[in-house]
Amino acid sequence: MSDGQRLRRTPPSGFAPALAGARQRAALGVRATARAVGISPGYLSRLERGLRCPSRSVAEQLIVVLQVDGDERAVILGAAVDGVGRDHPARRPRATGSANA
Asked: What contacts 74, CB < 8 A, 6 or more positions away?
């Protein structure tokens, strides 16, 4: 695969229902959940439909916001992909200032 290509992963079969169920049990709407996690409502919808895998940091935020534990926590973290989305090395903030200053 060349540097310009992106790898897409299909989430595990239990991921989408676990995420949607956790959000519904938390009595949060799609917009409120997305806002609290820091993602768009459309992206959350794609996650809940099993069309996307979350980055590790998004999965961790979803777990905190939705107060997920146990098996659902394992399912959501199991769908997470390292080094993509906001976790991609090119998107990580760089240190400011210089060592010579």
From this structure: none
Q: In this structure, is residue 89 part of a structural domain?
A: no
Closest residue by Cα to residue 85 from 33, 48, 44: 44
In the chain, what is the straight-line distance between the N-terminal and C-terminal CA atoms, in Å?
41
Bridge partners of residue 37, in order along the sequence:
none
pLDDT, one tens digit per residue, over 37-91 is 999 999 999 999 999 999 999 999 999 999 999 999 999 999 998 876 665 566 6
Q: How far apart are CA 85 and CA 89, in angstroms?
A: 9
**Helix, strand, coil % over all residues of the chain, rounded to 5:** 55, 0, 45
Give the rounded distance of the alpha carbon of 23 from its chain centre. Answer: 14
Task: Please report whether residue 4 resides in a domain.
Answer: no
Asked whether residue 68 is assigned to any structural domain, the reply reads yes
Inside any domain, residue 99? no
pLDDT band per the 50, 70, 90 thresholds, residue 97: low
